[in-house]
Amino acid sequence: MPHPLDSFFAPASIALIGASRDHEKIPGRLLSMLRKNEYPGKIYPVNPNYADIDGLACYKSIADIGAPIDLAVIIIPARAVLPALEQCAAADVKNAVIISSGFAEEGGDSAAMQDAIAALARRTGMRISGPNAEGFFSQMQRVAATFSPAVDVKPDVVPLVATTRRIGIVAQSGGIGFAYYHRAKALGISVSYVVSAGNESDLGAGEFLDYLVQDPATDVILLFIEGIRDVSKFLAAAQRAAETKKPVIVTKVGRSGAGERAAASHTASMAGWSAAYDAVFAKYGFIVSNDLDEALTIAAVLASNPLPRGDRVAVVTVSGGAGIWGADAVALHGLRVPELSEPVQAKIKILMPPYGTARNPIDVTAQGVTSGGLQKSVDLLTASDEVDAVLVLLSLSSEVRKPFKEAELKPVLAAQKKPVLFYSYTVPSDFARHDLAKSGVVVLSGLTHAGVALRQIVDYAKFSLPKPADEARLPARDLCAHLTSPVLSEADSKTLLRAAGIALPDEVLVKDKSELDAAVARVGFPLAMKIQSPDIPHKSEVGGVRVNITTKGEVFLAFEAMLNNARKHRPEATIQGVLVGPMAKKGVEIIVGTMTDKTFGPMVMVGLGGIITELFRDVVYRPAPVSAEEAGAMLAGLKAAPLLNGFRGAAKADVTALARLIADVSVLAARHAKEIAEIEINPVLVHPEGQGVTIVDALVVRRK
């Protein structure tokens, strides 16, 4: 099915506005790169200062060309860009890439020029990439609409091609996007597209991602992002990638304060709150990598291997030390290196000298290379149902020796029965890389990255999109009457939650001591008492909490003491009274909360609760709303998950009830995102299985 960006990535004709004869400068390099990569379409240089450039007729303006133009590449001073775009629109140019810089990244009037570009795109329908972009490269269509030296063609160099599957690259930094391409090419990874999004006045990372998701020539996607502007398009593309099981590897920068400042100045947009990005990535099964070489290793493994069926790894080597190191590298990431069964060991032992080992790691020794034992061991392991992946560690420094024969290795790897990774602990020679590439092998040179890649593809193989939230479980209600102040007290917060359909214990707000007898009769002993004020969020810090009260005398004394403490420590606070409620049964303390991210909207969070929440920061976020199933997956992702599953003989907690509560709170946050900024329920006591949960404290913050 045709895509709206087909004519962008595969233009039949290109106009270079600002073209130059000087190949040392960016305008001249743009024409040079197009021609070196043998662009098959028509090229129209545009520059009033030349009659011709490199044998091509040069036009004074886009209007003088008099032929259809699919793509205009613009590299002229910033203040001349908007008039040039107007001329492009008048000439019915379909798409434009603005290489020129000096727009929103500079602020002030320059930012206003970028706004005008965006308005022009909306008004005319022309699709515009940039400004401040490095262009793009469509390898399939030989469109090098970029000045990056990474796409330069050297006629005397034989390209290294190890994969038939291709990766597509979208980057909000042109330099990094083409760095991915440059390194991928060095590894022998085939590439479909590289696109630099620039300042995203019109086209953004979301639409480029959407194009690669639907593109049949792209099998794996690499993303480098600072912040997302076209959020709805990005999320729709992420959904499609998850549904079609097309892997997306993402690097998100701007996570530190300094990084966020740099992101803001570089792309004229705040990078956003990284926890929300990670929550979105997790929801759609994106593989997160914060290292360039690691990301490429994961991409290489995905482009050259099938997904594994499990987490059992066989480590095969010609060096005992390397085998131990390889086993450690995969075990470090929670993968299993199981001892092979006696029958499988017996078959492998035949292939090696007596001083080798077949247990796993499997050391066929250096002799195994020349005897064919290495190849035959790989054959056996790819056929065995005892392991799910194979990691081969060897030295590939030789310029003449071949450890594998193409006729034997290629069919085994082409069968795609399971992932087989190859790591060289010496610097691999070009000879070895090219020879193994014929069999479809990408030689890896980072053992830690290989371990990470195996872990990531095991997890990705298990990923499936969570079911949508069951919003019908929580009845839709108008809560505006309960949002009486910017920050609600605990009592008011709980009243709002009850009104929304969330179950809470029966409690009484006592405003005068004359009401205490009735409150005690209703609640019963033992009970807890807490001062209530929208101005006192941390009640214990002002002596505003009493627990395990068992007599009426204690009730009256506590009431007076808490009021006096509050007036003493916070004389300006508005005191609503004292909340009297039953003491909850013991349980695992969990925090459930929601907050609103400026990019992605409402988020739901769960973590280890109580007073240690901020100490351990063991929390998991997801975009709201979530289903109970997805909430259960969030709980499983906590480091503290064993506490809910019967740690050290304790009773298994009621995870089902907790998951339902998380789901309901997430629906509440999403439904009332325009009214409620934050909800915090801390702690939630999770009782033994079948006994439910108890909300002990709650806080609701109104949206400004």
UniProtKB/TrEMBL annotation:
Keywords: ATP-binding, Nucleotide-binding, Tricarboxylic acid cycle. GO terms for biological process: tricarboxylic acid cycle. The keyword DNA repair does not apply. It comes from the Bacteria. Residues 494-530 form the ATP-grasp domain. One of its GO terms (molecular function) is metal ion binding. Gene3D superfamilies: ATP-grasp fold, A domain, ATP-grasp fold, B domain, NAD(P)-binding Rossmann-like Domain, Succinyl-CoA synthetase domains. In the N-terminal section; belongs to the acetate CoA ligase alpha subunit family. This is Acyl-CoA synthetase.
